[in-house]
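During the first year of the project, the team set up a workflow for recording each protein of interest as an amino acid sequence followed immediately by a discrete structure-token representation. This format lets reviewers and collaborators read both layers of information side by side without switching files. As required by the reporting guidelines, we include two representative entries from the current panel. The first entry is reproduced here exactly as it appears in our internal archive.
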Amino acid sequence: MKTETHPAYFAEAKVTCACGRTFTVGSTKEKLEVEICSVCHPFYSGNEKILDAAGRVEKFKTRKSKAAATTASVKKTVGSK
């Protein structure tokens, strides 16, 4: 490695999460502050919340069927002229 080209590397950089957990990693910064880590992230902790996914899908299907019906009726009226 060339001297003066690369930033300083800290093998024991301290990471602090908003949940209070601290751990060390290798980084070019000596201290890191993060908002979420593997302990408090919903995917890793198993506390995922599904926000009304079924309701959104049903609304989409309803709009799609209405749009298909409207398109079919327009094609019938245009074709009959």
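The second entry, processed by the same pipeline in the following quarter, appears below.
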Amino acid sequence: MKNHDVEDTWHYHNGTKHPNGTLLNRYHTFHAGMRPAPYKIYKNVSKISLSLDKEPIGISALDAISNIYDSKVGMIPDLNILTRILYFSGGITRTIKFPPPMGEFEFRAASCTGALYHIEIYVVCSDIPGLDAGVYHFDPKELKLNILRKGDFRHVLVDATADEEFVKQAPVMLIFTDVFSRNSVKYQAREYRHAFWDCGTIISNTLSIISAHKISSRLISGFVDNTINNLLGLDHTKEASLVILPIGYTEKPIPKSPPIVSINIESIISDSDVDYPEINSMHDASSLCDNTEVKSWRKHFAKSQHNVTDLIPLGTGTLTNDGIEKVILRRGSTRAFSHDSISFEQLSTILKRSTNGIDTDFLAKHDTLNDLYLIVNRVDGLPSGSYHYVKEKDSLQLLRAGDFREISGNLGLGQDLPRDASVTIFIMVNLQKVLGNFGNRGYRIAQLDAAITGGKMYLAAYALNIGATGLTFYDDMVTDFFSPHAKNKETMFLIALGKKVINES
């Protein structure tokens, strides 16, 4: 069982650190003309056209981000709701024409490193209103479902997750996959980190829309990888399953699934043929091979329980009522920050609303694997300096006072964005402890947990009309800067927040 040999993770993680990771070629270059087509294309497949209703349903973005809806009341989403979930997770929300060689870019509901859109979404469902039971692929380009299998195959997922209780009760499952070469063409072997960064930011949208519809869900990371890949007809060396998200609740027992035969449908997943064996090695090392391994893997991580400044979130009377749909549609990665300040109340609201936790098979509700470290450049009501967010107390612990704007830029790969932002937030984890609990698969969930938190911060910031963007970083320099407090912690995600420059589109 490779999952327990965590040296595989350390080899990959240390080898993909900036600036001198041994698995990275520092002279590698990428230009827009190398960008692969960002869509999976099925040939000669039956399709179902989706009718999209974008109208807000009256739930504010901040409430949708922070609420976890848990109910045993029967809730079976219909095709209309499923379409909204898919669209606001990964649909095309705007098209922008750039000068050659970039050309026309179709941007999607959630951010993605390099706008390379390497995450695909599949649906496995029972009969639901408007849609027959089957296995489907979501095509965001045409807003259609590609029919891969007909029939109720949910029991395959029950078996693959070792009878996970929520999977046994869900009428609909979403499966998120990663097409490796679409992202590695730019980011090389570091792509496997991006797989979970970008999947997590998409899932933060998904969870928010599901919450807005008051539907229960649970993120499932423990499953037999090959079983899920075979169900979807994937070549796991090119595209692999990352996570399962069961949605809704039904008391009807799941019937036995039809036999799984090969899907003889030709598809094109990427027009890039660049392969990095380190990605496949890391994925294989973190894969679970059978139900017994899934059962032994599944456990809840418990974090151990500081001069602090209590958060002061905005009062309900001053909060925006913008619906989650409106916020997702206007969300984008900020390309330039002014040096203007945001308020401490705005920062408090973002931290509070985005860290309420998620329902998963690896965490107790409202908990997280990660810790938040901040460099505050300009926040009204909060002195500049470095901080640790003490979630248990809803407080910020001052680590060092001072002006660290230049350091913030240096840690963020020497870029202007983290230097100019009001605050940069580094989401870090004690990776050794997580790997000790979960083996190599812990690397997947540490990245995913951080990215979902970062994705919620994106949405919370845009709900407050503040800019946000995710960035990469110099790994060890971040740890060194926040030490000794962050000793033995590794950075999983970086997001910068602040006021956008006035003339930014």
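For the second entry, the following points were noted during internal review. The mean pLDDT is 92. Residues 2-259+274-297 form a domain with the NADH Oxidase fold (CATH 3.40.109.10). Both points are flagged for discussion at the upcoming steering committee meeting.
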